[in-house]
Amino acid sequence: MKASQQSAGAGPLARAWRHPSFLLGALLTALMVGAAALSLVWTPWPPTALNIPHKLQGPSATYWLGTDALGRDVLSQLLVGAQSSIAVGLIAVGIGMGLGVALGCLAAAQRAQGRGWIDGVLMRAADFTFAFPALLSAILLSAIHGPGLVTSVVAIGIFNIPVFARIARGAAVAVWAREYVTAARVAGLGPWGITRAHVLPNIASPLIVQATISFATAILAEAALSYLGLGTQPPQPSWGRMLNDAQTLMFEAPLLAVWPGAAIMLSVLGLNLMGDGLRDLLDPRLSRQR
Fold first, then answer.
1. Is the pLDDT assigned to residue 285 strictly greater than 90?
2. 157 three-state secondary structure
3. How many whole angstroms separate alpha carbon 237 and alpha carbon 125?
4. Is 70 in contact with 48 (CB distance < 8 Å)?
5. Helix count (H) and strand count (E) of the chain?
6. Could you tell me the keywords of this UniProt record (predicted)?
7. What does the alpha-carbon distance between residue 157 and residue 134 come to, in Å, rounded to a whole number?
8. Within 13 Å, how many C-alpha atoms sit on residue 135's CB side?
C-alpha cells in the first residue's frame, strides 16, 4: 500500500527517470543538440575545406569518419549539418505551432460563442493547406524565390500549421465544455481571457508532444529537400545533401551514405521516443498507471 502511494505521489522527474522510452529519446536528442552546439566552437577540420589528395579516405586517426569525394572531413560535416536540421526544425515548428494554435483556439472560441460558421471556415482552410505537403510547397516556392534554407523552413512551417490547428481546436473544444469555463463565462470573463487562463494551460500537454513529433518530421523533410537540391545550399553542410553526394559512390565508399543516414535515423528516433515518453508522462491517466 505504501509503495503504491509513493508511486502515485512521485513527481514528474522521478517518473521520467523510470521511463526507458523517454530516457533513450532524451539521450539521442541531447546527442544531436550537443553535436550542433559543439560545431559552433570546434570541428576536427574546417567542414568546407577541400583536400583532393586525401579524398575518399576511410576512418583513421586523422579523419575519424573518413573524407568525401572532395577530401572534406565527414565528421566535421556531420557536426555542422546538425545545425541546419535543428534550425529548420525549431523555426518550422515555431511557425506551425504559433499560427496553428492561434487558429485552433480561435475556432474553438468562436464555436463556443455560437459562431460555428467561423469554426467551419477555419477548419476547411486547414484542410486546404493539407493539399500542399512540404515537398510540393518547397517546389512551388523554389520556382518563385529559388531553393534555399528559407524555402525549406517556410514550406515545412506551412505544412505544420493545420496539424497544430486541428490538435489545438479539438483539445480546446473539450476544455470549453468544462464547468470551470462555464463559471468563468458567467463571471464575465471574455473569450480571450478564458483562452489565456484556462484553455492554453490545459491543452499544453498534447501540443508539446506534437511539437516533438513535428520536429522529427521537419528533420526528415529538410533532409529530403536538401537531397533534392531544394534545401540547404552549398557550401553549408547538410545531412540530406551528404546522402545525395554519396549515392554515386555506394560501391566505392559506402560509409559516406551510412554516416548521414545514421545521423538522420538516430535524431528522428530520439525525438519520436521522447514524444512517446512525454505523452505518457504528461497524461495523468497513464502516469497513474505507471
1. no
2. helix
3. 36
4. no
5. 13, 0
6. Cell membrane, Membrane, Transmembrane, Transmembrane helix, Transport
7. 8
8. 10
pLDDT in tens, 85-137: 999 999 999 999 999 999 999 999 999 888 888 888 888 888 888 777 777 88
Per the listing, cell 510547397 goes with: 137
pLDDT in tens, 4-31: 444 444 566 777 788 899 999 999 999 9
Kindly write down the DSSP assignment for every residue of 76-135, as one continuous string.
HHHHHHHHHHHHHHHHHHHHHHHHHHHHHHHHHHHHHTT-HHHHHHHHHHHHHHHTS-HH
Whether 33 and 86 have beta carbons less than 8 Å apart is answered as yes
- Between vectors from CA 212 to CA 207 and to CA 217, what angle results, nearest 5°? 115
Angle 68-33-75 (CA atoms, 0-180°, nearest 5)? 15
pLDDT tens digits for 170-216? 999 999 999 999 999 999 899 999 999 999 999 999 999 999 999 99
The dihedral built from the CA positions of residue 254, 260, 263 and 265, taken in this order, carries a sign that is: negative
Q: What is the pLDDT of residue 6?
A: 47
* Rg of the chain taking only CA atoms, in angstroms: 23
- The rounded distance, in Å, linking the Cα atoms of 115 and 118 is 6
Question: Could you tell me the pLDDT band of residue 286, with boundaries at 50, 70 and 90?
Answer: low
Query: CA–CA separation, 230 vs 103, rounded Å?
Result: 29
Q: Are 175 and 198 in contact (CB under 8 A)?
A: yes
Q: What is the CATH number of domain 2-41+62-289?
A: 1.10.3720.10
> What b-and-e string marks burial along 97-127, b requiring 16 or more CB atoms within 10 Å of the CB?
bebbbebbbbbbbbbbeeeeeebeebbeebe
- Name every residue whose Cβ is closer than 8 Å to that of residue 132 and which is 6 or more positions away in sequence: 140, 158, 159
